[in-house]
């Protein structure tokens, strides 16, 4: 069973940076996984942030492209470096994953595995 746990959220002023981490466990080496981040801003729908497709390429949403960088390590821990943060980046950020035979073709919030979320608050 895959387990994901986010950390690294907090409060920061606009223009600042935060680095989110997602510790992953339970992955099976023989499978390829899609992994990524989505967020939910107050009163808004969930939205993609960035993710690795199971083929390995990276997709960024237009709203974060050039400011956020997603990465992962060999232990399937996932990271999100967030620079030049804006007030509109305030949201709960979730880490998600699925195996290639699952729902990788769907939005990240529909994948089989996700964490509890971490709050990011950006103030002026």
Descriptive overview:
By secondary structure, the protein is an all-beta fold. Helix content is 0%, strand content 50%. It contains no helices and eleven strands. Strands 2, 4, 5, 6, 9, 10 and 11 form a seven-stranded mixed beta sheet that branches. It has a four-stranded antiparallel beta sheet with strand order 1-3-8-7, with no helix packed on it. It is globular, with a radius of gyration of 14 Å. The model has no long low-confidence stretch (mean pLDDT 94).
Low-confidence stretches: none
Number of DSSP helical runs: 0
Overall shape: globular
Helix content range of the residues, please? under 10%
Kindly list the characteristics that best describe this protein.
124 residues; mainly beta; four-stranded antiparallel beta sheet; globular
In short:
The protein has strands at 3-7, 10-13, 18-25, 33-40, 46-52, 58-60, 68-72, 78-82, 91-99, 113-114, 118-123.
Q: How are the secondary structure elements laid out?
A:
Blueprint: E1 3-7, E2 10-13, E3 18-25, E4 33-40, E5 46-52, E6 58-60, E7 68-72, E8 78-82, E9 91-99, E10 113-114, E11 118-123
Parallel strand pairs: 2-11
Antiparallel strand pairs: 1-3, 3-8, 4-5, 4-9, 5-6, 7-8, 9-10, 9-11
């Amino acid at each position: 069973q895959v387990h994901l746990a986010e950390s690294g959220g907090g409060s920061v002023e606009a223009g600042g940076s935060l680095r989110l981490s997602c510790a992953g466990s339970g992955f099976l080496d023989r499978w390829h996984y899609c992994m990524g981040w989505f967020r939910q801003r107050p009163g808004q729908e969930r939205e993609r942030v960035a993710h690795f497709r199971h083929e390995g390429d990276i997709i960024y949403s237009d709203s974060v492209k050039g400011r956020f960088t997603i990465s992962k390590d060999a232990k399937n821990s996932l990271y999100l470096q967030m620079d030049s943060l804006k007030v509109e980046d305030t949201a709960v950020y979730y880490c998600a994953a699925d195996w290639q035979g699952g729902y990788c073709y769907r939005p990240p919030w529909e994948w089989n595995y996700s964490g509890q979320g971490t709050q990011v608050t950006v103030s002026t």
